[in-house]
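Quick log. Single chain, no ligands specified.
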Amino acid sequence: MQHFYVSAIDGSRKSIVAGPFPDHDSASDAVVKVSLAASDLDPRAWHYGWGTAGSDAVLPSIFGAVAADDDARTIVARWKAR
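-> predicted structure:
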């Protein structure tokens, strides 16, 4: 796998929420802040199953790339500014 993502599962729905990240550790490090950002936008996201996913292809994600120093507020603000 060359590209890594923060992913969410809600029942049978699966989403690529943030990324791509350069490695699995970077995606893993972002899971909490991405889930907090998603929960700020939709309180139901608090109950989703959060984790990581990998792919050889570049996939679109809801929040796009997230920097290591981004916090949940920054992620939400960038998403709202789209």
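Residues 35 and 50 are 7 Å apart (CA to CA).
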